[in-house]
Each structure stands twice: as structure tokens, then as C-alpha cells.
Amino acid sequence: MMTLPVLGLVIPCFNEEDVLGETSARLISLLTRMRDEGLIHDRSAIFYVDDGSRDNTWALIKELSAVHKEVCGIKLSCNRGHQNALLCGLMTAPGDMIISVDADLQDDLEVIPKMVRHYREGCEIVYGVRKRRDTDTFFKRISAEGYYKLMAAMKIDIVFNHADYRLLSRRALDALSEYREVNLFLRGLVRQIGYQSAIVVYDRAERFAGESKYPLRKMISFAWQGITSFSTAPLRLITTMGFLVSLISGGLGLWGLATSLILNQALPGWTSTVVPMYFLGGIQLLSLGVIGEYVAKIYIESKGRPRFHIDKLEGDAFRKDLQE
Ligand code: UDP
Ligand code: MG
Fold first, then answer.
1. Which of 26, 56, 262, 306 to pair with 233, CA 20 to 30 A apart?
2. 321 alpha carbon to ligand 2 midpoint, in Å?
3. Which of 77, 128, 89, 90 is nearest to 106 (CA)?
4. What is the mean pLDDT of the chain?
5. Is the CB of 208 under 6 A from ligand 1?
């Protein structure tokens, strides 16, 4: 008989004390069910990554891991953000396949067995894709869908309505570990791996406790991260803009010359001089800013600093004496 695959569930947690109890109860019962159905190995486990929480999250994780053998914890030295916490979990948790999911259970857990079945049929990557967005606010829905369309227009390869709910096989994780960038946009990176993949669709629920750890400010910076990490389209836009403006001003110059030489008329005055001046000044500053953003990225990347530091590990999966 084929040996069963070991599943690792990776859950980044930042100040999630309100949800961890319920999340654990549901994940443990899901793991038990899948074990009983002969879908996954007994050693399958849950890995909470505490992203430098300032509440009781780590204490709770320790407690849970003392009581339940399938619960493990990874504590980051300080808050490094969702993407880094996620990467830390993916790079640290053992297992033949890893599924990443948020702590707030907005993503329907019932598709996890489906992801595993795809894995067993030979897929290396399985994307969780949201069917509808009716639990989102109007603003979030419009902005998120607009964003995915903008990415597509820039030819950035991402899966529409897929966030960070996905399965990665060991082979895909090894491939991911070869991407050394510090500015992380995992959903874009995973697309570049290119191994055989599948999609499972689900409905997304509301966060059942606590509040979003992604305020608008973080969301915008993450969106910009996604674009600048995968596309130089904004730079090309500047070139196009420069070209168009030069063309137009050349035309205007000819027109001015013609009116004064042929019609012998003075050009009408102030507005036509001052408005384009400010306008061009604005465009130039904006362009410099965009170029600056890319330069800043090079600056950060060139240092190649570590993306996270693990402070503590907790749970059976990390105990050498329990491994065979
Ligand atoms: N998260 C994290 N570090 C952070 C911010 C968020 O690990 O700095 C985790 C958070 O605990 C949750 C996941 O990332 O498990 C997604 O966050 P959230 O559900 O608040 O985002 P939303 O669903 O509102 O976009
Ligand atoms: Mg959430």
C-alpha cells in the first residue's frame, strides 16, 4: 500500500487570541476526520506561526500544543508581516505537503480534503479560489476585483480571486525556497513555479472573531508590492508619457511658430504658459517618485537581509527524539 502523505497546516497568527481556540477545535477535528478516512498520515500536524503578537497568542499556542499532539508552534522574534510569517511556516514545517490558511477561518476548511485529493492525483500546487465576495464590504470587493484586473492588464500572472489559501507539495516548497527576494508577494511567486496545479473553489465567510489585521494602509502597500515585484509596467508608462508629452509640446511649438510667422499674431498669454508648466512639473515629480520606488526596492533587495528569525519552536513535530 502507498504510504499516506503527511500534511502540515500552516497558520500565520498576529494577535489572534480571540480565534485560536475555535480555529484549533475545527482544524483538529478536520485532521482527525481525514486521518480516519485514510487520506493523510498520522503525523499530520497544525503549525501556528506567531508573528510577534502582542496579546496572549503565543501562550495559547503553547497551551494547545501541550494538550494536543498535533498542534505545534513557531514563534517569530518580532512582527514581520503576514507574508514573511507565512513563508517562515512554509519553510519550517515538515510534511509532504503544506496547506496555508488564515487564522480567522474565513476560508472554508471543507475544501482541504479536496486539495489533498488533488495532491494525491499528482498536483504539486492547489489554489483555493473564492467564488463570490458577498461577505466583503462594497469597497473591498470593488478594490480587490479592480486590483486583480489591473494586474492582469499588466500581464502579471496571478490566479483571479486567489489569496494565500493553497496547497504546496514538498517539491513546490523546495522550488519556492530558491526565490530569495525580500519583498514577498507569495501568490505571484507560486505562479512562477509552474508545476502541475489545480483549483478548488469555495465561499468565503466573515471573520468570526477579532478584527482584520489588514487595515487599508497595509492593503495598499501590499497591492503596490505585488505590482512592483512583478512588473516594470509603471516605468514603461513613464516612458510612454514622456514620449506623448514631447510629441504634444512639439506640435504646440510648431503651432506657435506658425501663428507668429504666418498670421503675424502674438500668442495669447499666461494660462497657456503657466498651466503646462505646473502640469509637467507634476508629471515629472510623479515619475521620479515611481522610479524612486523601484530604486528603493533594489536598495532593500541588495542587502539580502533575512526575512524572519525564529525565536522558539513548540510541539512534537520539532522534537528530534520523536522522529524516526
Ligand atoms: N497576519 C500576520 N501578520 C500580520 C498581519 C496579519 O500573521 O502582520 C495574519 C493574521 O493573523 C491572519 C492572516 O494574516 O491569520 C490574515 O489577516 P486578516 O484575516 O486580518 O486579513 P483579512 O482577511 O482582513 O484580509
Ligand atoms: Mg481574514
1. 306
2. 36
3. 128
4. 92
5. no
